[in-house]
Specification:
This protein has 377 residues and is of the alpha+beta class. The chain is built from seven helices and 20 strands. The chain has a single domain, classed as Roll (2,3-Dihydroxybiphenyl 1,2-Dioxygenase, domain 1), CATH 3.10.180.10.
Length: 377
């Protein structure tokens, strides 16, 4: 197979698109967002949520009886907003527009309105619903929180390149200070429809496509999607989406300073009794060092460091979707991370499989067989 010019040749993916395959970007998107702004959740116990958040490395912006706002150390808006409710669930994501005028353009294209956000956040929003039913906000002119002091990073001796002498390296077992929100991963029964919606409305572009082995001719089943900032590099993925039997949150990821912060922060979480889902390792798509944890409500969150940054010139890579292809090094992907641990979540997913196969969506019996092969491949 011949790769197209500008694909991931000699990176981590040896092939690009074949003729007539998905281009990974819209020809004329409505706007181009700059980044994720924040994620919104509902949880029943804000005190427990805040306790875990501090151990994970967030800083509280504000907490009332009904709302908790959490931030990283980078300047900007809070990166997580948690509202009190009867059960834990993901509400949706807010993306940051490049300019206020983009909100007007987006509202006109979607027959919606530009609305004012609550004073605690400030600014304006256009509130949309993606094809999977997820809330999507595009915001501008929000209040800017000042930067907080950074967590010290380590100085390394690389082989014979000595940069540290007559001093020791003793990173403390302490929370790994969150710098910023990196990405969110979602599962959808309407993968292609949802993918095209995000590319067209928000101007996102695909970094990597994944497909089920033996089913490439049916098209991709997962994509890692980045913001198009032109010649300014952006994260390998700000949003990742995969085909599945239900529409659900998979995980979200938050950047920390380096491997030592991530590893020592993980020891701190472990000693407090929190559950590591998978890690430590280094991913293939995105290349980031990762460590996954479950919060008290069972939601999956990731510390990451040293991720890839691509500008607009790189075309999508294409590769088969396998469990063994999730990491360059590290332990094998766990049953918990893959969603195979017996419990309420697995039971819900099994029920969703049966329901989805009866419904009119993209998840059919052939796709189910492909998904089941992924966990053992």
């Amino acid at each position: 197979m011949t790769s197209h010019h500008g694909t991931h040749t000699d990176l981590h993916c040896e092939q690009g698109a074949l003729p007539a395959e998905h281009p990974g970007r819209a020809r004329n998107p409505v706007i181009k967002v700059l980044d994720l702004a924040w994620l919104e959740f509902v949880k029943p116990d804000l005190v427990a949520s805040e306790r875990f958040a501090h151990a994970f490395g967030f800083t509280t912006v504000s907490r009332t009886v009904d709302e908790l706002q959490l931030r990283g150390n980078d300047p900007g808006a809070p990166c997580v907003i948690v509202r009190r409710g009867p059960r834990s669930r993901y509400l949706g994501a807010a993306f940051r527009a490049a300019e206020t005028v983009d909100l007007v353009r987006l509202a006109g294209a979607t027959c919606t309105n530009v609305e004012t956000l609550p004073e605690s956040i400030g600014g304006l929003t256009v509130d949309l619903t993606d094809p999977s039913g997820g809330m999507v906000r595009v915001v501008a002119d929000t209040h800017e929180l000042a930067a907080l002091p950074p967590q010290p990073t380590q100085q390394f001796n690389f082989g014979h390149d000595v940069r540290r002498a007559n001093t020791t390296q003793r990173p403390p077992r302490a929370p790994a200070t969150i710098q910023r929100l990196g990405h969110v991963v979602l599962q959808t029964t309407k993968y292609i429809e949802s993918l095209n919606w995000y590319l067209q409305h928000l101007g996102l572009i695909v970094s990597d496509f994944k497909y089920y082995e033996g089913q490439r001719e049916r098209g991709p089943t997962m994509s890692f999607i980045r913001c198009d900032r032109g010649t300014t590099p952006s994260d390998h993925h700000t949003l990742a989406m995969m085909l599945g039997p239900s529409n659900r949150y998979v995980h979200s990821a938050y950047q920390v300073g380096d491997l030592d912060a991530l590893a020592a922060g993980g020891e701190y979480l472990r000693e407090l009794g929190f559950n590591r889902s998978w890690g430590i390792g280094r991913h293939i798509e995105g290349s980031q060092i990762f460590d996954y944890w479950r919060d008290p409500d069972g939601l999956l969150v990731e510390h990451f460091a040293d991720g890839d940054l691509f500008d607009c010139t790189l075309e999508p890579g294409w590769s088969p979707m396998t469990a063994s292809g999730l990491a360059q090094w590290g332990p094998r992907a766990t049953k918990d991370f893959l969603g195979l641990t017996p419990g309420r979540d697995l039971a819900h997913e099994l029920v969703s499989m049966a329901r989805s196969l009866r419904d009119n969506n993209e998840f059919d019996l052939t796709r189910l067989r492909g998904m089941l092969k992924v966990t053992s491949s």
